[in-house]
Amino acid sequence: MARWGEGDPRWIVEERPDAVNVNNWHWTEKxxxxxxxxxxxxxxxxxxxxxxxxxxxxxxVDKLEGEAAxxxxxxxxxxxxxxxxxLSWKGRLVGASDDYEGKIQIPNLSEENDLSExxxxxxLKDSTPEGEVVKxxxxxxxxxxxxxxxxxxxxxxxxxxxxGMILPKKDSEExxxxxxxxxxxxxxxxxxxxxxIVQKWRLxxxxxxxxxxxxxxIEQQEDHTLVKITQTGIPKxxxxxxxxxxxxxxxxxxxxxxxxxxxx
Length: 264
Fold this sequence. Notes:
Belongs to the AHA1 family. The chain is α+β, with helices and mostly antiparallel strands. The chain is 28% helix and 34% strand. The strands form two sheets. Strands 1, 2, 3, 4, 5 and 6 form a six-stranded antiparallel β-sheet that branches. The longest helix is centred in the middle third of the chain and has 33 residues, at 129-161. The protein is rod-shaped and about 90 Å long.
């Protein structure tokens, strides 16, 4: 297998020294964990929740465990975030002088849950009749404010942090774009849904009008899917490098990302 930097440039979607993800074709990932921690602290610390009944202030973010990331695959952004949070609060009844303290727990902020489904659990440090009133106020009105802030975080993640993840396409015309992505193939010569795909396939410097045939046969097994790939009509001088590049640019990459095995 060729070493890094010695690969066959004919198999690369676009020859670019900056390795930019041209036409957003490849899978890219951007870690949003550190940004998310700073954003959530910015949104919550110092937040005031008030009414004619009580005034409460979020004083700290005691616990913030989890992670967040954005994936770009073929120009589609996929957002992942999962957080377990604990906030500290301090508040009093309007017109009163005694302060009360407690915690707000948010155990399941995730892209899998709608914001209305996110749990917001309010606890009181020392139970007193007045303190319970403040806690009850937080449980009802405060939960809405907390979910609003969580919504701001999710919107910022999708609109602010994700900027630059999808790059402008190099070719504005649809035909040119398709040719840029499928530069090694003349298109499908046969397709049987869920069963078989056949393509005419060539490299640009092969003899003119010389195409090989690549056949993908898809077989659904009991607990996995088996894909058999056969390529015929390869020029003899290109046989070994073609075999090597299938492994280097496709199978090895798929194995690293998904853990799927293959043999040739």
